[in-house]
Amino acid sequence: MFSHPLKTVFSVFIAALIFLLSLVGVAAAQGNTSLGEGALFRNTTGGTNTASGLNALSGNTTGNDNTAIGADANYTVRLLVALSSISL
User: Fold this and answer.
1) Hey, which of 10, 15, 71, 73 would disulfide with 54, CB 3.0 to 4.6 Å?
2) What is the CA radius of gyration of the chain?
3) How far are the Cα atoms of 1, 31, 43, 78 from residue 86, in angstroms, in the given order?
């Protein structure tokens, strides 16, 4: 079908395209830290969030400066205002 060099070029092109498409949401949502399966799963443009635990902050899409610790912490919240700053 394709000669060997053309297959290589095509494969590199597809790999680069997949990589670039995977970065689309990363540029908008920066400064986030997540640890745990599903943590910050739906985050799109929200930044400087910290989520630790199973599904922590997984409902957050655009909220900024949030912290959630524990399994399902703020799981269903769509717009987060609480926990915007924590001082110990």
Assistant:
1) 71
2) 18
3) 61, 17, 20, 20
Domain count, the chain: 2
pLDDT for the residue numbered 78: 44
Express each pLDDT in 29-54 by its tens digit.
Answer: 788 988 888 888 888 888 899 999 99
Separation of alpha carbons 73 and 56, rounded Å: 5
Nearest residue to 62 (alpha-carbon basis) of 21, 24, 32, 22: 32
- What are residue 67's phi and psi, to 5 degrees? -135, 130
* pTM confidence score: 0.57
